[in-house]
Structures are given as structure tokens and as C-alpha cells.
């Protein structure tokens, strides 16, 4: 069970890191109301792909998150990186499906990742997220968030 939760946390952190970041422009008015893991598929011994269904409340304008990529750190050491499909956020409350890929960082073995999964503590993890936020008028702004504490969002 801990392994499944660990994998879900990595997928969620890397696929939705931009939306769980503290609300501020250009993501003002955006909050995550819940999530569920839809699927996880191995891509290799060092990677997987997956999909997450996410409840989103958007009190701001319509916007799209493009080129979303993230890096996950455990106690300051890079453990995984990932990217996901574009995320279209309409005004109001909706459920969106986000798919993406995650791979272990260079120097992180499958054995090390499994050991981390068995002793998983969200407070040890942070994420860096980069994406382009495109508003309804087509204006884009690059968003870079570093050190997002995963423990604040996942219990």
C-alpha cells in the first residue's frame, strides 16, 4: 500500500505541481479540490506514465498550463522528473484529466526508489515546477516555482 501511495504522490506532484502551488498571479483563484489516480503504467525500469483525475476550482479567468515539467527532490537530492499534457482550466469548478510521464533521476536506482517508497514521509519532498500559463487572450507568462513543499499538500 505504501508503494502505491508513493507512486501516486510522485505522479501527482510532477503532473499537478503547478496547480497546487500557493495561489498567486498568474495562478490566482485556482485551487485543487481533490484528486484520484486513474492509471499507472511502467514505461521502463526507470519510468512510468500515468493519469490523474483532478477536481479544480477556478475563480479566475480561463487559462491553459503548457509545457508543464517538474523535478522532485527528497531532502534536497533530485529523485525524479516528469512532464505532462497541457492543462486547460475553465472558470468554475470542474474535473480534469492530466496524463504524463515520470522517470527516475540520473544516479537514482530502482532499489533506492523502492526503499524510499517503503519509508515515505511527504515532509521530506519538494518539487520545482516550470510551465507557461496562457490566458484566454493568448498571452503567455512563464511560471517557475522552486521548493514547493509536498508535505503541505499530501498527508
Outline of the structure:
This protein is α+β, with helices and mostly antiparallel strands and 155 residues long. It is built from two helices and eight strands; from the N terminus they run αββββββαββ.
Query: SSE string, helix = H, strand = E?
Result: HEEEEEEHEE
Distance between the termini: 14 Å
Number of domains: 1
Major sheet:
8 strands, antiparallel
The total count of helices amounts to 2
CATH fold-level topology: Immunoglobulin-like
- Per CATH, the architecture is Sandwich
Provide the helix percentage: 10-25%
The CATH class name reads: Mainly Beta
Name the structural class.
alpha+beta
Share of residues in strands: over 45%
Overall mean pLDDT stands at 79
Rg is 15 Å
Shape: globular
β-strand number: 8
- Poorly predicted tracts of residues: 20-24
How would you characterize this protein structure?
The chain is α+β, with helices and mostly antiparallel strands and 155 residues long. It has a single domain, classed as Immunoglobulin-like, CATH 2.60.40. Strands 1, 2, 3, 4, 5, 6, 7 and 8 form an eight-stranded antiparallel beta sheet that branches.
Task: Give a topology summary.
Layout: H1 2-20, E1 30-44, E2 47-58, E3 63-74, E4 77-84, E5 87-89, E6 92-104, H2 110-118, E7 125-135, E8 140-149
Antiparallel strand pairs: 1-2, 2-6, 3-4, 3-5, 3-7, 4-6, 7-8
Helix pairs in contact: 1-2
